[in-house]
TrEMBL record, chains A, B:
Superkingdom: Eukaryota
A Pfam match: TauD
Annotated ranges, domain TauD/TfdA-like: 195-439
Record-linked SUPFAM superfamilies: Clavaminate synthase-like
Protein name: TauD/TfdA-like domain-containing protein
The entry's keywords: Dioxygenase, Iron, Metal-binding, Oxidoreductase
Listed cofactors: Fe(2+)
Gene Ontology MF: a single term: metal ion binding
One of the protein's GO biological processes: carnitine biosynthetic process
Keyword flag Metal-binding: yes
Organism: Monosiga brevicollis (Choanoflagellate)
Lineage: Eukaryota, Choanoflagellata, Craspedida, Salpingoecidae, Monosiga
Length: 473, 473
């Protein structure tokens, strides 16, 4: 008996700001397999090079592909899973050299040209283990009988990615276990030169710590131009992500700061630049100077997803309300070289609408801005929920990571997941505390982490990146 | 009688990818005003400089602020509107110099420190026209009676921004009229040097055309380094937005292209880089060389929102389904200098869940990627809807803007709203077609357009930017 239970990917309420729709699909191992494989012995069509460099460790392998009826086929996987595919799906996903440009991997057939007319039939399904792909002959009726109009080519690795995509969407269901959370006492440490000049495994180890633990500390950077230090780091992933603060920025106390960070006051835990549609992903803060006589100024980090999970446990109503009512975040500041007027509306908490697991926390009180007028009753409840979250953050001292940066150290963290801050400090004349900062785009970080994982032959990563589940299929 | 109808901002189904929650709030002019203003004559607290440089033309003015009861106050506007504010709202939005840092405009009080205890009372409400702000004395009971714990300062312009925010959210309801659509026969033309070296009104005119018409053509750029041409343009807004293709990119036919654009084939209408969380906003394509003997290669543009509106009218079911089932967009390409593995899932159409108006169209068939497995029945309907949209695009020739770029011309368009493409061309030996391209971040474009509009004393813009209504309050 073959059972494949499917559900429509649901775009749930409250998912504004997250791009991972909730979906659930249960794939039940078959008790028996449908029969009907037909080998017609046609010449194998030319195929595009495989998308991924080589199968990952633990990659499911395709065992068989069989025609079910004139419009569907089934795939049997080494994991015991059975997948049913519709002809329309297969036709769209074809990766033959006509459908996909070999060099770029881009699709070359545009709708409506590649639309089915609903009189097509699957004429043959061939699993070609040597070539590593499944071929489907698609035929249309003509006065002289069925005629093959296209041979669809589905590489095994592309099918495995779709299998994974289906699972990744279902994985948003999984419980946030302590293993997913950052261990405060365990800030990962790497050598700066290993990351910038080292080999791929050394580079990957740093990326993987930021992906899984949310943060990493680099030590022993060579002295010299601090701008080059952070730009070189960003270049190991992609490039600096420029913002209204420039390609890099200086965190140093000044008289009339254009940002609170550029003073000596304490910075409570928060995230940076949440008024951008895509809030910067990684942040690197390189300590260029921090005189030992300066009191205070310790750097602080806290896992925002862990905080959100605590609020859910302690005050479910607050957790719910912070998903429903969006906060305004803004940088509206005209008294600067380039006036800024950036405004975003997003909920403070985004959770999986089915499991209720937190997917993203956005916490940046300094940048909360002009709110639309709210109904008075709702208003009071909303600000109570907001204060409750603030209290959880303040009281979660067990989650606090505290570190006083030494010169030539670099604090690296995922700004989408980790809250950061610093203790206030007292400057003595002639002494300075000077950090050089840079951001890296979240998509480019995920791309680098995922592709290096592939190139190293590792399993695809399963880390959360603070904006839902990372797109790793 | 005072009636203020409010509704909770609703985070509607299908809003993944859009950040503008649907909200409706009807503010009905009062027939009479509540009484109860109390002037206690306290010294005016120090206030932060106004957020916006000066009131815009048509800016609503505050006429009065009155206490309603111990927890609410009402505002009366020059437009006849009446707004009721809760104490919790006002407390959060306070912009006195204790709550907000004067230089940066950032908020300095963090929850839970600024949480109300629910025993506070409004003791006085003062509208101070000379200072341009409303003051609220907030008191708490003590053994010796009520004691003022804070004087909230609400500048008139900040209140006007919240009034506007409330309206902007409601404005997503408005009908997409032909006035909002791009007139194909009317591609706006500006001189390159007016934009790069001209005054603020000349710069603004170019930005405003891109905001309202989706595109503009620049002519008569000085010859020379094409990279400098596009970087100088981006610098008039903010800076180039770097992507996996670099800070700028060359569109020129090559042998083994890493992108279909880098060949001579036709490019059907599409958008670029939709696999980024924040798809690039503006795109500038500067024509460095395009020999007159080359046949074909004309540039094409089409308004994606107009296309989406047509699909809604012609095939409402397809329009609905394309909002419900997300498409996968990706760049998974290992055979390049920096391997790329970027994947995003988003619906092809995002519409306002209440009015059904299209807010964003994402159309990029070359970058459609590995789909999760879909239920066969749904699958067939989905790809039919997808083909129907493709047919609307193909048949909407009346919306097509076609222009053959001349050397030293620059095509500028909003990549979030406009589809672009080109006709195929035939190269003769020794002749080239070479465009230099650059992207600009959508938030930085909106920021520049909005702030220049303010600095010029114009009304705040009301354009759509292809990701819902722009955040212009």
């Amino acid at each position: 008996m073959l059972r494949v239970l499917t559900r429509l990917p649901r775009l749930g309420r409250g998912l504004v700001g997250a791009r991972w729709p909730a979906a659930a699909r249960t794939i039940v191992p078959a008790e028996s397999l449908a029969l009907g494989r037909r080998h017609l012995g046609l010449a194998s069509p030319e195929t595009q090079v495989n998308v991924l460099p080589r199968p990952s460790e633990g990659h499911p392998h395709l065992l068989a592909a069989d025609q079910s009826d004139s419009a569907t086929l089934t795939l049997e996987w080494s994991t015991g899973q059975i997948t049913t595919l519709d002809l329309a799906w297969a036709f769209h996903q074809c990766r033959c050299s006509t459908c996909v440009q070999a060099g770029s991997g881009q699709r070359q057939r545009y709708p409506p040209d590649n639309a089915l007319q609903h009189n097509e039939e699957l004429q043959a399904v061939r699993w070609q283990p040597q070539q590593g792909h499944v071929e489907l002959d698609v035929a249309r009726p003509t006065p002289t009988g069925l005629q093959v109009i296209h041979t669809v080519v589905l590489p095994e690795d592309a099918l495995a990615r779709s299998l994974r995509a289906t699972q990744v969407l279902a994985d948003t269901r999984r419980t946030l276990t302590p293993l997913n959370l950052v261990e405060p006492a365990n800030l990962a440490v790497h050598r700066y030169t290993d990351v910038v000049q080292g080999d791929t495994p050394q580079l990957f180890a740093w990326l993987d710590d930021m992906a899984n633990k949310g943060a990493a500390l680099l030590v022993d950077a060579p002295a010299g131009d601090p701008d080059a230090r952070v730009v070189d780091l960003a270049a190991r992933i992609s490039q600096p992500m420029p913002t209204i603060y420039g390609a890099t920025f200086d965190v140093v106390a000044t008289e009339n700061p254009i940002n609170i960070a550029y003073s000596s006051v304490a910075l409570d835990l928060h995230q940076d630049l949440v008024y951008y549609e895509s809030t910067p992903g990684l942040q690197f803060l390189h300590c260029a100077d921090f005189h030992e006589t300066i009191e205070g100024g310790e750097s602080l980090l806290m896992d925002g997803l862990a905080v959100a999970a605590r609020l859910r446990d302690q005050d479910p109503d607050a957790y719910h309300l912070l998903q429903q009512v969006p906060m305004t975040f803004e940088k509206v500041h005209y008294d600067r070289a380039l006036p800024a007027h950036l405004v975003a509306q997003r909920p403070i908490i985004t959770a999986d609408p089915e499991s209720g697991e937190p997917l993203e926390l956005v916490w940046a009180p300094p940048f909360e801005g002009a709110l639309p007028f709210l109904e008075p009753g709702l208003c009071r409840r909303y600000f109570d929920a907001y204060a409750a979250l603030g209290m959880v953050i303040r009281e979660s001292t067990d989650l606090l990571i505290e570190h006083r940066l030494l010169p030539n150290e670099t604090l690296c963290f995922n700004n989408r997941r980790m809250l950061h801050g610093r203790r206030s400090f007292v400057l003595h004349e002639g002494h300075i505390r000077f950090l050089k900062g840079v951001y890296v785009n979240i998509d480019e970080f995920v791309s680098r982490h995922t592709s290096l994982s592939q190139l190293l032959g590792l399993s695809l990563p399963t880390a959360r990146y603070g904006h839902g589940v990372a797109p790793m299929w």
